[in-house]
Amino acid sequence: MSNQFYAPPGGHALPLRLTFVQLLLVMVLSSASFAGPRYGQDELSRKVALKVENVTLRDALLRIEKKANIKFVFSSRIIQEQRVSFQTQGGRLAEVLDQLLKPLGISYELVDNQIVLSKKETAATETATPVAEQTASVKRPQAVAFTVRGVVKEANGSGLPGVNVVEKGTSRGTNTDANGAFQLDVTDGNATLVFSSIGYAKQEVAVGNRSTIDVTMESDNRNLDEVVVIGYGTVRKSDLTGSVGAIKGEKLLDRQATNIGQALQGRLPGVDVAVMSSAPGYQPRVRIRGVGSINSSLEPLYVVDGIIGVTNANLINPNDIESLEVLKDASATAIYGARGANGVIIITTKRGKSGATQVSYDTWGSYITPAKYLGTLSADEFMAVYNKAYDNAQKYDPEGFADGKYVRNDPKNFPNLFDANGRPLYNTDWEREVYKPTWAQNHELGVRGGTEKTSYSLSLGYTDQGGLMLNSWFKRYSAKFTLDTDVKKWLKLGGSMFLNRTNQREVDDASGGLNVPRMVMEAIPILPTQYPDGSWGRNKDWPGMEGGENPVRIANQRLRINPKNQMLGQIYSLLTFSPELTLRSNFGYELKFEKNNFYSGRDLNALSADQKGTADIWSNQEYYWQFENYLNYNKTINSDHTISALAGLSWQKRSWERYLAAAQNFIDDFWGYHNLGVGTSLQKPSSEDQEWSLNSYFARLNYNFKDRYLVTFTGRYDGASKFGANNKYAFFPSAAIAWNVSQEEFLKSVSWLSNLKLRASYGKTGNQEIGQYRSQQFLGTGDVLLGGVRQTGIWQSSFGNPDLRWEFTNQLDIGADIGLLNNRLDLTIDYYHKITKDLLLDAPIPWSTGLAVVTQNIGSVENKGLEIGINSRNVATNNFSWTTNLAFSTNKNKILKLGVNNDDIFPGPWFLGQTNILRVGQPIGTFWGRKRLGTFSTAEADLAAKYNRLPGDIKWADLNNDGKIDGSDETIIGRAYPKWNLNVGNTFQFGKFDLSFDIRFVMGVNTVNATKHSVEDRQAIASSSRTVLGAWTPENQNSMIAEIRHYNAGYDTAMDDWWVEDGSFIRGQNLVFGYSLPNKIGKLNFQRLRVYASAQNFFLISDYSGYDPEALTAFGGPLIQNIEFFQYPRPRTFSLGLNVQF
C-alpha cells in the first residue's frame, strides 16, 4: 500500500501510513483513558459568557451546562425555586459558580467530569458581589426533605467514587464523592435507592426509616456468566476452553441487514466476511481463519437450530436470530469432525417464552445509489482516441496499413450519428443509463408467548430489494413457527419450521463475457440508447466495432429469473431421567427446490441472434435429513468437582436431482422460457442425481475444579460415502485446558484485574466437502460424427482411487481472556497455528492410460495468525453511555506441499491468462505476471528494438537478462488476501438517542483491476478506459500506458503489475442514529418504540481506481480472488426504520 489514501471525488486527500501496532495502541489507550474515574480542574477553567434575568437557579444551571459543556448533579432539596439574575462575559467557570452558589450556602465538587452540588453545614448569608462584570440577586424559600447519607464501597472496603445514586422512579440523583460518600434527599421512607456504576452489578436498596445506608458493590460478572451455545449443548462463557465468538440477536439488529453475512461482517476477529457481488440476493463469502484448501469448499459449516449443514443460511431472517456463535479452534469444532475444518457457525433462533404474548414489528425503507461511477469516455474523447488509433496504425503495423487494413469511418457518411460539422449528435453516459438509484423495503412481524408448560413463536417477513443495475431485483418471503411443550415433568417435545421463498432477477451473469457490466464499459458514447424510431443503438452501427449488444437492451430483453423455495424443520424430544441425566433426540430436514429460468431474445446481437433466441430451464431438487440421539450428564461433587459428559450418534444424508432442458430458434419472443416447445430446435436434455451420507459417533467430556482448572476432551468418529473404500472412516479428536488464574488467592487482592483465564487447545478436524464420487471410476458420454451421422459413445472419464481420504487439519490454539477494571475492559487474545494435510489435487498420470490426471491426497497448506477482540465500556451514567468494540485479526498463509514434485500450478482464470500461481512457500491467492517499468521513450529506440519494440510500447523488466521477454520473466506481483483486518465499532446512548458506527480497515492486500486493463486495449474497436487519455505521446513519454493504436496493430495485453493495484481500504461500514419514543402514546403502551436512520458504506478511503477494492468476482473460487472483471458497482444505502414491540 502506498503512503497516501485518497477520499472519493470531492473529498480531501488524507495522508495516512498505518501500522497495526500504532493503530491498536491509539484505540486501546483511548478506551482505557475512560475506564476509570477522571479528575481534573480543566473543566473549572472553562470560560463562560452568559446573561440571565430572573430565572430559576435550575434553569441557570442548565444554561451553564450548555455553555461550559459540563454536567451538574444535585438534589431537589438544594435546588428549589430560587430565582437569580446575573451576567458574565468570559469569566472562569469556578469564579461564576463561587459567586452564584456561595450566597446560597451551596458547595460544589468536580467528580468524574460532573459537578456535584451539596449543602454547606452553615448556610451563607452574604450577598453576591460582582466578578467579571457579574451580578446576582437571590430569593430563597424554606423547605424540608428526608435526607439519606452513606458510603459506597468496593469489596475490599475502599470507597468507590463516581457511583450513580438515584431514587427509583424519580429524577433525583447524585454521585458518590472521591471517598465514596453520598447524600441524597428522598421523598419519604418508601423510597428505593438504585446504585449503579460501570463494572458493578446494579443494586436496589429500600430506604425504610434509615437515614444512613452503606452499600458494598459487587463486580458485574454477567458477561462471564453468559451462556454460549456450542455443538450439542451450552456452556457458561467463564467455562469455555475453546475459541468461540458469540453475538446476541439484539446486537445483530444494531445494523440493517438482509442476511446473516451482512449482520456478521466485522463483528468477530478471525471471521472475514466479504461481498461476492453487489447484485441483490447474492450471499456474502465467509472465511474463518484463512484459506485451508485448494480443491475443497472453504465455507464454514452452518448449524441452524441443530440442523447441520444448511446450504444457504443467508436465507434465514436476521430478525429471527436469538444468538450466533462462531466455533474457531479444534476444541470447539471437533465435535463436528469431518465437517468442521473451516469453522462452524451455530445459529439459534428465537423461541417463545412463558408469559404475556409479545408482538413486534420492524420495518425499514432504503434509498440505494451507486457509491462511485468510474466515468467513461465522452463522445468527443472517444472520437479523439479513435482517430489517434488510426493515425498510429502505420507506425505499429506498416504492412497492414499498406494493404489497406485500416480504413476509418467518415462521420459525413453517418448523418444519424453526426451533424454537418462532423460533431457527434449523442453523448451517452452508459454507466448512468444502466446503474440507477433504486429502493428497497423490509417488513418483519413476530408474535411470541406461552404458558407455564407450552411456548410458541411465529414470525413473518418480506424483503423487496431493487438492484442498481437496470431491472435487477430480489424478493424474499419468509415464515417461521416454533412450539415447545412440557408433556410430563420428564418429557419435553418441540419443533420448528422455516419456510423461505426467494425470487431474483439476475441481469449480471458474472461471466465476464458480453454481459451488461462489460458492455457498459465498451459501448461507444456516440450512440443513443434508442434512436427516434425506437430502434436500439449498438456498437455495430459504427462499423469496425466489436459486436457487443446495447447494455440497456440486454437488461430489458435478456431474462434470468431464479425462484427458490426452502424448508427447514426440526422436531425433538428431551427425556429427563434425573437432574443429572437427559437424552435428546433430534430429527431435522431441509428441502430445497430451485429453478433457473433463462431466455435471450431473437435479436440480441452477439448473444442469441444467431440462434434466433435461446432458452433453458435448470431445476434442482434437494433433500436432506438427519437423525441424532445424545445423552447429557452433569454432576457436581462436593461443590468442587463438576463433570459434564456428552455421548451420541448421528446419521446424515443429502441427495439431489437436477434437470436441464433447452431450446433455440424461437418464432417469437413472446413465450420466452415459459414454453420451450415454441423453439423449433430443441437441445439434448440432461439430468443427474447424486447423494452422500455420513454416519457418526461423538463424545465430549468436561471437567471443572473449583472454577479454576478446566479440561475438555472431544472426539468424533465419522464415516463418509464420499471417500475411497480403504479410508471411509476417520477419528477427529481434540483436547483443551484452561486456567482461571483470577480465581487464585494470590490474585484476588488485585482489584484492577477482574478476570484472567488462559487457554490452550489442540485437535484434528476434517473436510469432506468434495465431489460425491471423486474416489470412483466414471464413465462419460460424448457425441461423434460417423459417416455424417451423430453417434453417442461411452468412454472412461476418470480413474477411481480407493485410497482417497479426508483433508485433515491439525490446529493449535493458545488464548487468554482478560477483564480489567471490573470488566469495563474485556480482551480476548488468540494465537492459532493450523496445518491442513492430504489436500486433494489432480496428479498427472501417463497418457498411455487414456487420461491425464487422477485425484490424490498430495498437498499441504499452513495458516497461522493472531486475533484480538476488545470490548470497552468507556462511560456509563444515567443519561449517557459509550461502548467500543474492536475486532482485529491477521493471517499468514503458506503452501507447504504441492504434489510429488512440488510443481507450480496456474489456476487461471483461463480467459485472463495466468493471473495466479500456486507455489510452495507462497500463499494461496498469489498474483503472477510481468513487471511493467513504463514505456520506451524515443531516446530508448535502440533498447526497444532489442526487444522488437518501438518507442511508445510497454517496457517490461527482463528479469533474467536474456534479451527477450517471455514466461521466464514473470514473477510474483501481489497477493489476494489481506495481512490484517480491523473493525472498530462505537455505540453511544444519550437519553433516548442512540448512535452507532462501524469502521472497517483492510490492509496489505492487492486487487487485480482486470476491467481497467481489458478496456484500455479496446482502442478503435470499442470504448476505452479513461486512463488512455494519459497514454504515451511524443510530448508525454513518462507514461505507464502504451501509445494509442488500433487493437489489431500489435497491442500487447500480457498480465503485469499495472493490473495489480493496492486493494487496502478503510470503509465506513454502518452508521445508525436512533431515537426511542415514549413507551406510552395516548392509550397505547409499548415495550419499545424506536425510529432510526442509517447509512451503509457511508465512506471509503482507498487508492484503488476501480469500483471497489473488495472485488470478489462471483466466478472466482478460493484460488481466484480479488480480481475485478466487469464488476457490479458497490451501493451506498440510506435508510429509515421503525422498531415496535408491545
From TrEMBL:
It is a multi-pass membrane protein. Its main location: membrane. SUPFAM superfamilies: Carboxypeptidase regulatory domain-like, Porins. PROSITE patterns: TONB_DEPENDENT_REC_3. Gene3D superfamilies: 3.55.50.30, Carboxypeptidase-like, regulatory domain, TonB-dependent receptor, beta-barrel domain, TonB-dependent receptor, plug domain. Pfam families: CarbopepD_reg_2, Plug, TonB_dep_Rec_b-barrel. It is found in: Cell outer membrane. GO terms for cellular component: cell outer membrane. Belongs to the TonB-dependent receptor family. This is TonB-linked SusC/RagA family outer membrane protein. It comes from Larkinella arboricola.
